[in-house]
Every structure is written in structure tokens, then in C-alpha cells.
Amino acid sequence: SAVISQKPSRDICQRGTSLTIQCQVDSQVTMMFWYRQQPGQSLTLIATANQGSEATYESGFVIDKFPISRPNLTFSTLTVSNMSPEDSSIYLCSVEEQGGIQAFFGQGTRLTVV
Amino acid sequence: SQQGEEDPQALSIQEGENATMNCSYKTSINNLQWYRQNSGRGLVHLILIRSNEREKHSGRLRVTLDTSKKSSSLLITASRAADTASYFCATGIQGAQKLVFGQGTRLTINP
What is d(CA A14, CA A7) in angstroms, rounded to the nearest whole number? Predict the structure, then answer.
């Protein structure tokens, strides 16, 4: 199984600033996924990141607010831009397992915007 | 909108009892997966059941899938305090390489 390291694990940020979250995988994976989990809620997919191409964003999420990088097959970043208190959530990255079915998650980044 | 609806939203039982959580979904799926989340941390993958399977076991876990009713259930037998967590179902949608999560069930096991 893939091991995913996500940094930072938590942060408290001022509104109007940006935070970049890193996701490192111990093996090469084709697709990486970024999710948001608002307080007390379920997970919502933000975008899918393929290496070498633009990320694909879900309805309600835009690149200007959540730019994503995918420079290689083991690493991705998600930036939460121009933050407001409504962005306070847990952000999680996820990768496919070998069979091509998404299964493994990082420990998440708990973001609080004040 | 979320694909999955789970019930109950919260469940509290005594240690040693069995816990059953249900998940319903709306569209055709390739598979359905169950995850556990402790205290708002990362998700741990518990079990996957494919659309052509009806039942699957893993240790104290038993998952059923009824595609005609678009529903699944997760049974945890002989519950332990360490099973206290939130449990989410997630569906792999046909034609889309992503998971859609249900709202989750908060399970509390009382010692």
C-alpha cells in the first residue's frame, strides 16, 4: 500500500493569505486527488491532478482559488488562496492503488483561518 | 450533491455489541468502499466491494451490496472501544475515476 505524507498537518492562517499543502507519495502514481472536509461534514472532491497536465476541477472549485501543481509522479501541492474563515477545513490528498481504484489518503491538513 | 446517504448519522452502542451502518446511493457504480476516520484525521480504507459482488468479509467486518436497491451495509461484530470513529461509504462511479463520499456515521463504542 502507498504511504502518503502530507504537510503541514495543521496551520492557523490570517484571512487574505495563502497556504500551500504538500503531498508526497512513496511510489509513483498516475492520479492524485485533493479533497476538502468542512467541519462535521463529509469529503468533497476539489480536483484530480495528473502529472504533466492541468488539474481537473469539480463543480464549485476553480483554479484561481485552489491552484494545484503536479511536477512528478510522487508529489503534488494544493494552494488555498486568499483565504477566508469559510476555507477552514481539513484538506486531504489521496492516490490510486495499483488496481486503479482510489484508496489511500494522507493524514490531512487541518486549516483554520482567522 | 453527495452521492451517498448514510444512516444512522450517529450510533452509540456498548462494547461487544454489533454495529450496523447503511449507505444508499443514486447512480450506477463500479465499486463501493468503506473508510474509517478517527478524530478528523486521514481516512483508513477498510474494505472494497465490487458491483458484481454481494457480500465480503474482512476480520470483524462484513459488507453487503444490493445494487438493485442501490444500498450497502457495514457490520462490525464484537465492537471494541477502538472502533469509535466516523465511518464513510464511498462509491466509484461508472465512467468517472473518482470517489463520491456519503455523509458518514459517527460510531461511539461505550466501554
Answer: 18
- The Cα–Cα gap between A70 and A49 comes to 6
Q: What contacts A28, CB < 8 A, 6 or more positions away?
A: A73, A74
Rounded distance between C-alpha atoms, residue B87 and residue B44, angstroms? 9
pLDDT one-digit tens code per residue, B33-73: 999 999 878 899 999 999 999 999 999 999 999 999 999 99
CA-based torsion, A109, B48, B87, B82: positive or negative: negative
Q: Does B69 touch chain A (CB under 8 A)?
A: no
Contact of B75 with chain A, judged by CB distance below 8 Å, is answered with no
Record: contact A101-B92, CB cut-off 8 A:
yes
> Residue A30 in 3-state DSSP?
coil
Which chain A residues touch B if contact means CB-CB below 8 Å?
A: 4, 6, 31, 33, 37, 41-45, 48, 90, 92, 94, 100-108, 110
Measured between beta carbons, the chain B residues lying within 8 angstroms of A6 are: 42
Tell me the mean pLDDT per 10 residues along chain A, length 114. 92 98 93 93 92 90 97 95 97 81 85 97
